Amino acid sequence: MSEKTVKVRLVKGLRGCQQRHRLSVKALGLNKLNDVRELKDSPSVRGLINQLHYLVRVES
């Protein structure tokens, strides 16, 4: 049984965004611009991605 994963890339810098969103980016494990993480596809991760839709891109 293979677990579904989702690749997330940080495509925009964090200057000028809310502190809550900076913490959410850190929770996803993204540090620098163009960082990519492969995360387990869960409702909590999807919620973070939806909150940060203007900062991150989901890749297949």
TrEMBL record:
<dbReference type="GO" id="GO:0003735">
    <property type="term" value="F:structural constituent of ribosome"/>
</dbReference>
<dbReference type="Pfam" id="PF00327">
    <property type="entry name" value="Ribosomal_L30"/>
</dbReference>
<comment type="subunit">
    <text>Part of the 50S ribosomal subunit.</text>
</comment>
<comment type="similarity">
    <text>Belongs to the universal ribosomal protein uL30 family.</text>
</comment>
<dbReference type="GO" id="GO:0022625">
    <property type="term" value="C:cytosolic large ribosomal subunit"/>
</dbReference>
<protein>
    <recommendedName>
        <fullName>Large ribosomal subunit protein uL30</fullName>
    </recommendedName>
</protein>
<dbReference type="InterPro" id="IPR016082">
    <property type="entry name" value="Ribosomal_uL30_ferredoxin-like"/>
</dbReference>
<keyword id="KW-0687">Ribonucleoprotein</keyword>
<dbReference type="InterPro" id="IPR036919">
    <property type="entry name" value="Ribo_uL30_ferredoxin-like_sf"/>
</dbReference>
<feature type="domain" description="Large ribosomal subunit protein uL30-like ferredoxin-like fold">
    <location>
        <begin position="6"/>
        <end position="56"/>
    </location>
</feature>
<keyword id="KW-0689">Ribosomal protein</keyword>
<dbReference type="InterPro" id="IPR005996">
    <property type="entry name" value="Ribosomal_uL30_bac-type"/>
</dbReference>
<dbReference type="GO" id="GO:0006412">
    <property type="term" value="P:translation"/>
</dbReference>
